[in-house]
Write a structure and sequence with these properties.
Blueprint: E1 5-7, H1 12-28, E2 32-40, H2 43-50, H3 52-67, E3 75-80, E4 83-91, H4 94-109, E5 112-114, E6 117-119, E7 123-130, H5 137-154, E8 158-160, H6 175-185, E9 188-197, E10 203-214, E11 218-220, H7 222-232, H8 235-252, E12 261-265, H9 273-286, E13 293-298, H10 299-303, H11 306-319, E14 322-328, H12 335-338, E15 345-348, H13 350-353, H14 360-375, E16 379-382, H15 388-396, E17 401-402, E18 411-412, H16 413-422
Parallel strand pairs: 1-3, 7-8, 10-12, 12-13, 13-14, 14-15, 15-16, 16-17
Antiparallel strand pairs: 2-4, 2-7, 3-4, 5-6, 9-10, 9-17, 9-18, 10-11
Helix pairs in contact: 2-3, 8-9, 9-11
Bound molecules: ligand C2E and magnesium ion (2 copies).
Protein backbone atom coordinates (compact mmCIF):
# COMPACT_ATOMS: atom_id res chain seq x y z
CA UNK A 1 0.00 0.00 0.00
CA UNK A 2 1.00 3.54 -0.68
CA UNK A 3 3.12 5.36 1.91
CA UNK A 4 0.28 7.88 2.36
CA UNK A 5 -1.93 5.24 3.94
CA UNK A 6 -1.28 4.70 7.64
CA UNK A 7 -4.08 2.25 8.35
CA UNK A 8 -6.73 0.45 6.35
CA UNK A 9 -8.26 -1.10 9.47
CA UNK A 10 -10.51 1.21 11.49
CA UNK A 11 -8.14 2.77 14.01
CA UNK A 12 -9.03 6.00 15.82
CA UNK A 13 -6.21 5.96 18.38
CA UNK A 14 -3.65 6.11 15.57
CA UNK A 15 -5.36 9.25 14.29
CA UNK A 16 -4.88 10.96 17.66
CA UNK A 17 -1.20 9.97 17.79
CA UNK A 18 -0.51 11.15 14.24
CA UNK A 19 -2.43 14.39 14.70
CA UNK A 20 -0.53 15.10 17.92
CA UNK A 21 2.81 14.92 16.18
CA UNK A 22 1.71 16.64 12.95
CA UNK A 23 0.21 19.51 14.95
CA UNK A 24 3.42 19.86 16.94
CA UNK A 25 5.42 20.02 13.75
CA UNK A 26 3.01 22.52 12.13
CA UNK A 27 3.25 24.68 15.25
CA UNK A 28 7.06 24.70 15.17
CA UNK A 29 7.20 25.49 11.47
CA UNK A 30 4.34 28.00 11.72
CA UNK A 31 2.37 26.16 9.10
CA UNK A 32 -1.32 25.45 8.65
CA UNK A 33 -2.72 21.95 8.67
CA UNK A 34 -6.07 20.58 7.53
CA UNK A 35 -7.95 17.64 8.97
CA UNK A 36 -10.47 16.07 6.60
CA UNK A 37 -13.04 13.52 7.80
CA UNK A 38 -14.33 11.60 4.81
CA UNK A 39 -17.46 9.53 5.13
CA UNK A 40 -18.83 7.17 2.49
CA UNK A 41 -22.60 7.59 2.33
CA UNK A 42 -25.12 4.80 2.02
CA UNK A 43 -22.31 2.31 2.66
CA UNK A 44 -24.55 0.66 5.18
CA UNK A 45 -26.99 -0.23 2.40
CA UNK A 46 -24.17 -1.64 0.30
CA UNK A 47 -22.87 -3.57 3.30
CA UNK A 48 -26.27 -5.17 3.78
CA UNK A 49 -26.44 -5.93 0.10
CA UNK A 50 -22.91 -7.19 -0.46
CA UNK A 51 -21.45 -7.99 2.94
CA UNK A 52 -18.62 -6.35 4.85
CA UNK A 53 -15.84 -7.96 2.81
CA UNK A 54 -17.04 -6.11 -0.24
CA UNK A 55 -17.10 -2.90 1.81
CA UNK A 56 -13.49 -3.51 2.83
CA UNK A 57 -12.56 -3.81 -0.82
CA UNK A 58 -14.52 -0.68 -1.65
CA UNK A 59 -12.65 1.20 1.07
CA UNK A 60 -9.29 -0.12 -0.11
CA UNK A 61 -10.12 1.18 -3.55
CA UNK A 62 -11.27 4.51 -2.03
CA UNK A 63 -7.96 4.86 -0.20
CA UNK A 64 -6.06 4.12 -3.40
CA UNK A 65 -8.04 6.82 -5.20
CA UNK A 66 -7.39 9.31 -2.41
CA UNK A 67 -3.68 8.58 -2.75
CA UNK A 68 -3.81 9.80 -6.34
CA UNK A 69 -4.61 13.30 -5.07
CA UNK A 70 -2.19 13.15 -2.11
CA UNK A 71 1.12 14.90 -1.82
CA UNK A 72 4.01 12.98 -0.31
CA UNK A 73 3.44 14.40 3.18
CA UNK A 74 -0.33 13.70 3.41
CA UNK A 75 -1.66 10.86 5.57
CA UNK A 76 -4.79 8.70 5.30
CA UNK A 77 -6.16 6.71 8.24
CA UNK A 78 -9.31 4.62 8.27
CA UNK A 79 -11.16 5.52 11.46
CA UNK A 80 -14.50 3.76 11.10
CA UNK A 81 -16.44 1.26 9.05
CA UNK A 82 -17.13 3.85 6.41
CA UNK A 83 -14.92 6.70 7.45
CA UNK A 84 -11.41 7.99 6.79
CA UNK A 85 -9.40 10.82 8.24
CA UNK A 86 -6.87 12.65 6.13
CA UNK A 87 -4.13 14.86 7.55
CA UNK A 88 -2.88 17.51 5.15
CA UNK A 89 0.10 19.41 6.58
CA UNK A 90 1.61 22.51 5.00
CA UNK A 91 -1.64 24.06 3.70
CA UNK A 92 -1.55 27.58 2.25
CA UNK A 93 -5.10 28.39 3.39
CA UNK A 94 -8.50 26.78 3.82
CA UNK A 95 -9.23 27.21 0.10
CA UNK A 96 -6.33 24.83 -0.50
CA UNK A 97 -8.02 22.26 1.77
CA UNK A 98 -11.37 22.72 0.01
CA UNK A 99 -9.69 22.14 -3.33
CA UNK A 100 -8.31 18.86 -2.02
CA UNK A 101 -11.76 17.91 -0.65
CA UNK A 102 -13.35 18.65 -3.99
CA UNK A 103 -10.85 16.46 -5.82
CA UNK A 104 -11.44 13.60 -3.36
CA UNK A 105 -15.23 13.82 -3.68
CA UNK A 106 -14.80 13.63 -7.46
CA UNK A 107 -12.52 10.59 -7.26
CA UNK A 108 -14.83 8.77 -4.85
CA UNK A 109 -17.90 9.47 -6.98
CA UNK A 110 -16.48 7.34 -9.82
CA UNK A 111 -18.10 3.90 -9.99
CA UNK A 112 -16.50 0.94 -8.18
CA UNK A 113 -16.12 -2.36 -9.99
CA UNK A 114 -16.67 -5.01 -7.31
CA UNK A 115 -17.13 -8.76 -7.74
CA UNK A 116 -20.90 -8.45 -7.45
CA UNK A 117 -21.08 -5.69 -10.05
CA UNK A 118 -20.48 -1.99 -10.49
CA UNK A 119 -21.57 0.34 -7.71
CA UNK A 120 -21.49 4.01 -6.92
CA UNK A 121 -20.96 5.45 -3.48
CA UNK A 122 -21.11 9.11 -2.66
CA UNK A 123 -18.99 10.74 0.01
CA UNK A 124 -19.18 13.74 2.32
CA UNK A 125 -16.23 15.57 3.86
CA UNK A 126 -15.83 17.77 6.93
CA UNK A 127 -12.79 20.06 7.20
CA UNK A 128 -11.16 21.79 10.18
CA UNK A 129 -7.93 23.81 10.12
CA UNK A 130 -5.05 24.13 12.57
CA UNK A 131 -4.45 26.74 13.98
CA UNK A 132 -7.33 28.76 12.51
CA UNK A 133 -10.10 26.68 14.09
CA UNK A 134 -8.45 24.72 16.86
CA UNK A 135 -5.03 23.95 18.29
CA UNK A 136 -5.81 20.76 20.23
CA UNK A 137 -6.28 17.30 18.76
CA UNK A 138 -9.69 16.59 20.31
CA UNK A 139 -11.11 19.99 19.39
CA UNK A 140 -9.85 19.75 15.83
CA UNK A 141 -11.49 16.33 15.43
CA UNK A 142 -14.70 17.58 17.05
CA UNK A 143 -14.82 20.59 14.69
CA UNK A 144 -14.18 18.46 11.61
CA UNK A 145 -17.05 16.23 12.77
CA UNK A 146 -19.30 19.24 13.13
CA UNK A 147 -18.33 20.39 9.61
CA UNK A 148 -19.12 16.90 8.31
CA UNK A 149 -22.54 17.00 9.98
CA UNK A 150 -23.18 20.44 8.42
CA UNK A 151 -22.18 19.17 4.97
CA UNK A 152 -24.52 16.19 5.33
CA UNK A 153 -27.39 18.37 6.54
CA UNK A 154 -27.01 20.92 3.74
CA UNK A 155 -26.52 18.28 1.04
CA UNK A 156 -23.16 19.77 0.03
CA UNK A 157 -20.31 17.39 -0.82
CA UNK A 158 -18.00 19.01 1.74
CA UNK A 159 -18.02 21.67 4.42
CA UNK A 160 -15.49 23.58 6.45
CA UNK A 161 -15.87 24.25 10.14
CA UNK A 162 -17.66 27.45 11.04
CA UNK A 163 -18.44 28.72 14.50
CA UNK A 164 -22.07 28.65 13.42
CA UNK A 165 -22.95 25.33 14.97
CA UNK A 166 -21.48 26.37 18.30
CA UNK A 167 -22.70 29.93 18.62
CA UNK A 168 -26.09 30.20 16.99
CA UNK A 169 -26.86 33.37 18.97
CA UNK A 170 -24.01 35.32 17.43
CA UNK A 171 -25.35 34.12 14.14
CA UNK A 172 -27.29 37.24 13.11
CA UNK A 173 -24.68 38.31 10.59
CA UNK A 174 -25.17 41.15 8.27
CA UNK A 175 -25.48 39.09 5.12
CA UNK A 176 -26.30 42.13 3.01
CA UNK A 177 -23.04 43.97 3.59
CA UNK A 178 -21.19 40.65 3.57
CA UNK A 179 -22.46 39.94 0.03
CA UNK A 180 -21.41 43.43 -1.08
CA UNK A 181 -17.97 43.00 0.38
CA UNK A 182 -17.79 39.48 -1.07
CA UNK A 183 -18.60 40.72 -4.57
CA UNK A 184 -15.89 43.36 -4.29
CA UNK A 185 -13.35 40.90 -2.89
CA UNK A 186 -14.07 38.27 -5.55
CA UNK A 187 -15.28 35.68 -3.04
CA UNK A 188 -17.87 34.28 -5.44
CA UNK A 189 -16.77 31.52 -7.72
CA UNK A 190 -18.59 29.46 -10.32
CA UNK A 191 -18.55 25.68 -10.03
CA UNK A 192 -19.56 23.39 -12.87
CA UNK A 193 -21.54 20.19 -12.75
CA UNK A 194 -21.22 18.04 -15.87
CA UNK A 195 -24.24 17.03 -17.90
CA UNK A 196 -24.15 13.97 -20.14
CA UNK A 197 -26.14 12.96 -23.20
CA UNK A 198 -27.84 9.68 -22.31
CA UNK A 199 -28.19 8.59 -25.97
CA UNK A 200 -24.48 8.62 -26.81
CA UNK A 201 -23.04 8.75 -23.23
CA UNK A 202 -20.92 11.77 -24.10
CA UNK A 203 -20.29 14.84 -22.04
CA UNK A 204 -22.50 17.54 -23.53
CA UNK A 205 -22.25 20.46 -21.15
CA UNK A 206 -22.40 21.72 -17.59
CA UNK A 207 -24.54 23.70 -15.20
CA UNK A 208 -22.95 26.77 -13.63
CA UNK A 209 -23.55 26.83 -9.86
CA UNK A 210 -22.33 29.76 -7.81
CA UNK A 211 -20.26 29.25 -4.64
CA UNK A 212 -19.33 31.73 -1.95
CA UNK A 213 -16.03 31.30 -0.19
CA UNK A 214 -16.63 33.45 2.84
CA UNK A 215 -13.30 34.21 4.59
CA UNK A 216 -14.68 33.31 8.05
CA UNK A 217 -17.65 31.10 7.33
CA UNK A 218 -16.08 28.93 4.69
CA UNK A 219 -18.21 27.67 1.88
CA UNK A 220 -21.69 29.23 2.14
CA UNK A 221 -24.44 27.38 0.29
CA UNK A 222 -26.38 29.17 -2.46
CA UNK A 223 -29.52 27.96 -0.69
CA UNK A 224 -28.49 30.37 2.09
CA UNK A 225 -27.41 33.47 0.19
CA UNK A 226 -29.55 33.45 -2.99
CA UNK A 227 -32.77 34.09 -1.01
CA UNK A 228 -31.01 36.81 1.00
CA UNK A 229 -29.56 38.42 -2.12
CA UNK A 230 -32.99 38.32 -3.76
CA UNK A 231 -34.51 40.30 -0.91
CA UNK A 232 -31.78 42.92 -0.87
CA UNK A 233 -31.57 43.42 -4.64
CA UNK A 234 -28.01 42.09 -4.79
CA UNK A 235 -28.99 39.19 -6.95
CA UNK A 236 -28.64 41.30 -10.08
CA UNK A 237 -24.94 42.16 -9.75
CA UNK A 238 -24.29 38.61 -8.58
CA UNK A 239 -26.08 37.06 -11.56
CA UNK A 240 -24.40 39.33 -14.12
CA UNK A 241 -21.07 38.47 -12.58
CA UNK A 242 -21.85 34.72 -12.69
CA UNK A 243 -23.00 35.07 -16.31
CA UNK A 244 -19.78 36.79 -17.32
CA UNK A 245 -17.48 34.40 -15.45
CA UNK A 246 -19.35 31.46 -16.96
CA UNK A 247 -19.22 32.67 -20.56
CA UNK A 248 -15.52 33.40 -20.03
CA UNK A 249 -14.94 29.83 -18.89
CA UNK A 250 -17.09 28.42 -21.69
CA UNK A 251 -14.89 30.22 -24.23
CA UNK A 252 -11.84 28.39 -22.84
CA UNK A 253 -13.28 24.86 -22.90
CA UNK A 254 -11.85 22.55 -25.54
CA UNK A 255 -14.13 21.73 -28.46
CA UNK A 256 -12.26 18.75 -29.98
CA UNK A 257 -14.81 16.25 -28.71
CA UNK A 258 -17.78 18.49 -29.47
CA UNK A 259 -19.00 21.89 -28.43
CA UNK A 260 -20.24 21.92 -24.83
CA UNK A 261 -23.22 23.91 -23.60
CA UNK A 262 -23.48 25.77 -20.32
CA UNK A 263 -26.61 26.41 -18.26
CA UNK A 264 -26.89 29.50 -16.03
CA UNK A 265 -29.56 29.74 -13.31
CA UNK A 266 -31.68 32.88 -13.46
CA UNK A 267 -33.98 33.82 -10.59
CA UNK A 268 -37.60 34.73 -11.51
CA UNK A 269 -37.18 38.30 -10.20
CA UNK A 270 -34.67 38.91 -13.02
CA UNK A 271 -37.14 37.92 -15.71
CA UNK A 272 -37.33 41.46 -17.10
CA UNK A 273 -36.25 43.16 -20.35
CA UNK A 274 -32.86 43.91 -18.81
CA UNK A 275 -32.11 40.17 -18.81
CA UNK A 276 -32.22 39.98 -22.61
CA UNK A 277 -29.83 42.94 -22.89
CA UNK A 278 -27.43 41.58 -20.27
CA UNK A 279 -27.35 38.16 -21.92
CA UNK A 280 -26.80 39.69 -25.37
CA UNK A 281 -24.02 41.95 -24.05
CA UNK A 282 -22.24 39.13 -22.25
CA UNK A 283 -22.45 36.88 -25.33
CA UNK A 284 -21.04 39.72 -27.41
CA UNK A 285 -18.08 40.19 -25.04
CA UNK A 286 -17.15 36.52 -25.01
CA UNK A 287 -18.11 35.63 -28.57
CA UNK A 288 -20.57 33.03 -27.30
CA UNK A 289 -22.55 31.06 -29.86
CA UNK A 290 -26.18 31.48 -28.69
CA UNK A 291 -26.97 27.77 -28.97
CA UNK A 292 -24.25 26.98 -26.41
CA UNK A 293 -25.99 28.97 -23.67
CA UNK A 294 -29.03 27.73 -21.77
CA UNK A 295 -30.85 29.81 -19.18
CA UNK A 296 -32.42 27.79 -16.37
CA UNK A 297 -35.52 29.11 -14.65
CA UNK A 298 -37.48 27.27 -12.04
CA UNK A 299 -40.93 26.15 -13.02
CA UNK A 300 -42.47 27.97 -10.06
CA UNK A 301 -40.64 31.17 -11.04
CA UNK A 302 -41.86 31.14 -14.63
CA UNK A 303 -45.39 30.22 -13.66
CA UNK A 304 -45.65 32.99 -11.06
CA UNK A 305 -45.87 35.54 -13.89
CA UNK A 306 -46.51 33.62 -17.11
CA UNK A 307 -47.41 36.57 -19.37
CA UNK A 308 -44.34 38.65 -18.68
CA UNK A 309 -42.05 35.65 -18.17
CA UNK A 310 -43.03 33.98 -21.43
CA UNK A 311 -42.41 37.21 -23.31
CA UNK A 312 -38.84 37.54 -22.03
CA UNK A 313 -38.15 33.88 -22.68
CA UNK A 314 -39.48 34.25 -26.23
CA UNK A 315 -36.97 37.07 -26.79
CA UNK A 316 -34.16 34.86 -25.59
CA UNK A 317 -35.37 32.02 -27.83
CA UNK A 318 -35.37 34.41 -30.79
CA UNK A 319 -31.70 35.10 -30.10
CA UNK A 320 -31.04 31.36 -30.20
CA UNK A 321 -30.47 30.87 -26.46
CA UNK A 322 -31.87 27.66 -24.90
CA UNK A 323 -34.43 27.78 -22.08
CA UNK A 324 -34.61 25.01 -19.50
CA UNK A 325 -37.40 24.74 -16.93
CA UNK A 326 -35.63 23.78 -13.71
CA UNK A 327 -37.05 21.72 -10.83
CA UNK A 328 -39.84 20.62 -13.15
CA UNK A 329 -42.62 18.79 -11.40
CA UNK A 330 -42.61 20.97 -8.30
CA UNK A 331 -44.03 24.20 -9.75
CA UNK A 332 -47.70 23.53 -10.45
CA UNK A 333 -47.75 24.42 -14.17
CA UNK A 334 -51.26 24.47 -15.45
CA UNK A 335 -51.50 22.59 -18.73
CA UNK A 336 -53.19 25.65 -20.22
CA UNK A 337 -50.04 27.69 -19.61
CA UNK A 338 -47.67 24.86 -20.28
CA UNK A 339 -48.62 24.60 -23.94
CA UNK A 340 -47.37 28.16 -24.59
CA UNK A 341 -44.18 27.85 -22.60
CA UNK A 342 -41.27 28.96 -24.82
CA UNK A 343 -38.84 26.37 -23.46
CA UNK A 344 -36.37 23.97 -25.07
CA UNK A 345 -35.90 21.61 -22.11
CA UNK A 346 -37.64 20.29 -19.02
CA UNK A 347 -35.33 19.48 -16.14
CA UNK A 348 -36.94 16.96 -13.81
CA UNK A 349 -36.52 17.91 -10.18
CA UNK A 350 -34.03 15.82 -8.22
CA UNK A 351 -36.64 14.95 -5.59
CA UNK A 352 -38.23 12.60 -8.16
CA UNK A 353 -35.00 11.30 -9.67
CA UNK A 354 -32.82 10.47 -6.68
CA UNK A 355 -35.04 7.68 -5.34
CA UNK A 356 -36.86 6.66 -8.49
CA UNK A 357 -35.44 3.13 -8.43
CA UNK A 358 -36.86 2.38 -5.01
CA UNK A 359 -39.92 4.58 -5.13
CA UNK A 360 -42.33 3.53 -7.87
CA UNK A 361 -44.52 6.69 -7.77
CA UNK A 362 -41.38 8.83 -8.25
CA UNK A 363 -40.46 6.78 -11.29
CA UNK A 364 -43.96 7.16 -12.72
CA UNK A 365 -43.62 10.93 -12.46
CA UNK A 366 -40.22 10.81 -14.17
CA UNK A 367 -41.72 8.69 -16.98
CA UNK A 368 -44.67 11.06 -17.35
CA UNK A 369 -42.44 14.14 -17.60
CA UNK A 370 -40.38 12.39 -20.28
CA UNK A 371 -43.59 11.64 -22.22
CA UNK A 372 -44.81 15.22 -21.77
CA UNK A 373 -41.49 16.57 -23.02
CA UNK A 374 -41.52 14.28 -26.05
CA UNK A 375 -45.03 15.26 -27.08
CA UNK A 376 -44.09 18.95 -26.96
CA UNK A 377 -40.73 18.47 -28.71
CA UNK A 378 -38.79 19.45 -25.63
CA UNK A 379 -35.56 17.85 -24.49
CA UNK A 380 -35.78 16.24 -21.05
CA UNK A 381 -32.96 16.34 -18.51
CA UNK A 382 -32.83 14.69 -15.09
CA UNK A 383 -30.92 16.17 -12.14
CA UNK A 384 -29.90 14.36 -8.97
CA UNK A 385 -28.86 11.00 -10.47
CA UNK A 386 -26.83 9.48 -7.68
CA UNK A 387 -26.01 6.03 -9.06
CA UNK A 388 -25.31 4.27 -12.33
CA UNK A 389 -28.47 2.17 -12.23
CA UNK A 390 -30.49 5.39 -12.19
CA UNK A 391 -28.60 6.59 -15.29
CA UNK A 392 -29.38 3.25 -16.99
CA UNK A 393 -33.06 3.48 -16.15
CA UNK A 394 -33.29 7.12 -17.29
CA UNK A 395 -31.60 6.20 -20.58
CA UNK A 396 -33.90 3.24 -21.23
CA UNK A 397 -36.91 5.43 -20.40
CA UNK A 398 -35.96 7.89 -23.15
CA UNK A 399 -34.59 10.72 -21.00
CA UNK A 400 -32.13 12.82 -23.04
CA UNK A 401 -29.70 14.25 -20.49
CA UNK A 402 -28.59 13.63 -16.92
CA UNK A 403 -26.72 15.38 -14.16
CA UNK A 404 -25.89 14.09 -10.71
CA UNK A 405 -23.28 13.12 -8.16
CA UNK A 406 -22.68 9.75 -9.86
CA UNK A 407 -21.32 11.63 -12.86
CA UNK A 408 -19.71 14.26 -10.65
CA UNK A 409 -20.61 16.83 -8.01
CA UNK A 410 -20.11 20.47 -9.04
CA UNK A 411 -16.41 21.37 -9.23
CA UNK A 412 -14.22 24.46 -9.68
CA UNK A 413 -13.53 25.65 -13.24
CA UNK A 414 -9.95 24.28 -13.29
CA UNK A 415 -11.06 20.86 -12.15
CA UNK A 416 -13.81 20.87 -14.76
CA UNK A 417 -11.19 21.56 -17.44
CA UNK A 418 -9.37 18.40 -16.35
CA UNK A 419 -12.69 16.55 -16.22
CA UNK A 420 -13.37 17.43 -19.88
CA UNK A 421 -9.93 16.18 -20.88
CA UNK A 422 -10.20 12.92 -18.90
CA UNK A 423 -13.85 12.09 -19.59
CA UNK A 424 -14.51 8.73 -21.20
CA UNK A 425 -18.08 7.65 -22.00
CA UNK A 426 -19.71 6.31 -18.83
CA UNK A 427 -20.93 2.74 -18.64
CA UNK A 428 -24.33 2.27 -17.03
P1 LIG B 1 -30.57 23.79 -9.02
O1 LIG B 1 -30.39 24.74 -10.15
O2 LIG B 1 -31.76 22.86 -9.10
O3 LIG B 1 -29.20 22.98 -8.97
C1 LIG B 1 -29.08 21.64 -8.63
C2 LIG B 1 -28.61 21.47 -7.22
O4 LIG B 1 -28.59 20.07 -6.93
C3 LIG B 1 -27.19 21.95 -6.97
O5 LIG B 1 -27.12 22.41 -5.63
C4 LIG B 1 -26.38 20.68 -7.10
O6 LIG B 1 -25.16 20.71 -6.41
C5 LIG B 1 -27.32 19.66 -6.48
N1 LIG B 1 -27.06 18.32 -6.97
C6 LIG B 1 -26.43 17.97 -8.10
N2 LIG B 1 -26.38 16.64 -8.25
C7 LIG B 1 -26.98 16.12 -7.18
C8 LIG B 1 -27.23 14.77 -6.75
O7 LIG B 1 -26.88 13.78 -7.41
N3 LIG B 1 -27.91 14.61 -5.57
C9 LIG B 1 -28.30 15.68 -4.84
N4 LIG B 1 -28.93 15.43 -3.67
N5 LIG B 1 -28.07 16.96 -5.20
C10 LIG B 1 -27.44 17.18 -6.36
P2 LIG B 1 -26.45 23.81 -5.29
O8 LIG B 1 -25.25 24.02 -6.14
O9 LIG B 1 -26.33 23.85 -3.82
O10 LIG B 1 -27.52 24.84 -5.77
C11 LIG B 1 -28.76 24.93 -5.15
C12 LIG B 1 -29.64 25.88 -5.89
O11 LIG B 1 -29.14 27.21 -5.79
C13 LIG B 1 -29.72 25.60 -7.39
O12 LIG B 1 -30.62 24.55 -7.62
C14 LIG B 1 -30.17 26.94 -7.91
O13 LIG B 1 -31.56 27.06 -7.79
C15 LIG B 1 -29.51 27.92 -6.94
N6 LIG B 1 -28.34 28.51 -7.60
C16 LIG B 1 -27.08 28.03 -7.68
N7 LIG B 1 -26.29 28.87 -8.39
C17 LIG B 1 -27.09 29.91 -8.79
C18 LIG B 1 -26.88 31.11 -9.54
O14 LIG B 1 -25.79 31.40 -10.05
N8 LIG B 1 -27.97 31.93 -9.69
C19 LIG B 1 -29.20 31.63 -9.19
N9 LIG B 1 -30.20 32.48 -9.40
N10 LIG B 1 -29.42 30.52 -8.48
C20 LIG B 1 -28.39 29.66 -8.27
MG1 LIG C 1 -30.46 24.66 -12.01
MG1 LIG D 1 -32.92 21.95 -10.05
Amino acid sequence: MDENVVSLKPNRPILSRYLESYIEQAHKQEQQLALLLIQIQRGQELATLLGYRAIDRLLEESAARMCTVCRKQDRIIRIGDLEFAMILPDMLNDGHAMLAANKIVGKLAQPYALEAGTFSAESRIGIAMFPEHAAKVETLVQYAESALADAKASGLPYGIYTARSLSKIEEAWDIESAIDAGLRAGEFEVYYQPKINLHNRRLCGAEALVRWHHPKRGLVSPAEFIPAATKTGQLKPLTWSVLNMTLGHLASWPTESGQLTVAVNIAPTLLKDELVNRVTDAMGIWGTKPDTLIVELTESGVMSQPELGFDILRHLRQKGVGVSIDDFGTGYSSLANFRHMPATELKIDKSFVTNMLVNEPDFRIVRSVIALGKSFDLAVAAEGAENLSTLGKLASSGCDYAQGYCISPPMPADTFNDFIADYTPMVY
